[in-house]
Amino acid sequence: ATAIVLFNRDLRVHDHPALVAACERAERVVPLFVLDPAVPAGNRQGFLLECLAELRAALRARDGDLVVRQGDVVHETMKLAAEVDATTIYAGADVSSLARRREEHLARERIEYLRFPGVTVVPPDALRPSGGGDHYRVFTPYWRAWTRHPRRPVLPPPRTVPTPPGLTAGRLPPLQPPGPVPGGEPAARERADRWLRHGLDGYADGHDDLAGDRTSRLSPYLRFGCLSPLELARRAERSEPFVRQLCWRDFHHQVTYAFPRICRENYRHPERRWRQDPDALQAWQAGMTGLPIVDAGMRQLLAEGWMHNRARLITAAYLVKHLGLDWREGVRHFFEHLLDGDVADNSGNWQWVAGTGNDTRPNRTFNPLRQAKRYDPAGHYVRRYVPELAGVPAPYVHEPWRLPSPPAGYPARLDGAADQG
Ligand code: FAD
């Protein structure tokens, strides 16, 4: 029999349960990726194409190939199934509403549709709170259950992928000029190896140091599944603080699985009234609010397609709590620019910050100036991303309005009130 392995956000050959099962059970295996123009790739398009090129190379090295089609995923998958006479589709289960709709449509077609784990460490529907409910709403009890949950084994890549002869693989769109982060599984594994050897042990103390940049920066690779989160969690188990972050990722995925409207609707609390202020929104997006720590974060996002977690918290809280603008505006902008931009993690974290999500203290306040002095005490992070302030010493670098003459080219504070801090 012939099987299609439908790749989605699992662009790897290591620890790929759907691929391994197909190679074990089917005589012929047709790996497929569908570039769907309806799915906005934002800044991620170039990274995605690099991931696909590497996946194709890895499959070819195993006597296989990667068929690449463009169009609607369900339509293209069924078209290929007819062409190669496939009887089964093997695919990784995903959580977003779009992915779930796709799964439902494929499951209704006249072909066997099999879902496999792999996008998270623990599958999003595996844990149920003992007190009832279909998912965990609070992180700490989820973490406790998550750490106790038995893990499936990490799978080696299949030795061969028996692709049928004469298969037309289709062209990949041309690669774009290299972006700030190289895409694909080999780059992901190399970065992970380096991180586990040299970075992991400093994580507990260093992860909030903005200028030190001491987090793994593995998020784009986890986003596209160039790395298996299960394998990473296993290899990183000596650092509980790091594994806890991987659990946060799973947490937001299981929330999204239960509440797929998370990117649009408040998860809890009645609708708040948000201000409309297009100029303020634009200043925030461009990193021109006049609050250096916020501007540094927003400019890091534009320059690198990535932002330090502490800066994400500060810039997000500034938008929703300081400027009073709708968290959905933040979701949209981050989603467009982040290489790791992901429905579950992006929306879940935005709602957490906005107080409409899973934070047990929804009225928490974030003082951006205090955060700046604590997590960027010498101002190196600000100076790195805001060149107008490159020559300003600490502590003025965080409060340039206190200088006798403001630095040339740097905007005045958008919120006007220098004493609010
Ligand atoms: P590390 O600190 O090295 O952590 C390792 C991995 O754990 C990360 O790669 C990520 O997969 C996971 N992780 C860490 N923190 C979180 C978290 N709070 N929630 C979920 N997973 C986490 N992360 C995304 O992957 N995609 C997003 O779209 C995204 N949007 C965010 C929006 C806001 C407003 C905030 C506050 C956070 C967002 N995060 C998002 C979470 C977090 O900021 C990033 O995962 C992290 O900064 C990535 O850098 P790293 O790989 O060096 O992380």
Quick structural gist:
By secondary structure, this protein is α/β, with parallel strands linked by helices. It has 17 helices and five strands.
Supply the key terms.
globular; five-stranded parallel sheet; FAD; Rossmann fold; Serine Threonine Protein Phosphatase 5, Tetratricopeptide repeat; 421 residues; flavoprotein; FAD binding; Crypto/Photolyase_FAD-like_sf; DNA Cyclobutane Dipyrimidine Photolyase, subunit A, domain 3
Neighbour order of strands in the largest sheet: 3-2-1-4-5
Judging from the principal axes of the Cα atoms, what is the shape? globular
Poorly predicted ranges: none
Distance between the termini: 66 Å
Radius of gyration over C-alpha positions, nearest whole angstrom: 23 Å
The average pLDDT is: 95
The sequence of SSEs as H and E is: EHEHEHEHEHHHHHHHHHHHHH
Q: What portion of residues belong to β-strands?
A: 5-15%
CATH homologous superfamily title of the largest domain: DNA Cyclobutane Dipyrimidine Photolyase, subunit A, domain 3
CATH topology of the largest domain: DNA Cyclobutane Dipyrimidine Photolyase, subunit A, domain 3
Beta strands, count: 5
Could you tell me which ligands this complex binds, including any ions or cofactors?
Answer: flavin-adenine dinucleotide
Structural class: alpha/beta
Main pleated sheet: 5 strands, parallel
Number of domains: 3
Pfam families: DNA_photolyase, FAD_binding_7
Site (Electron transfer via tryptophanyl radical): 274, 327, 350
Binding site for FAD: 203, 215-219, 242, 340-342
GO molecular function: deoxyribodipyrimidine photo-lyase activity; DNA binding; FAD binding
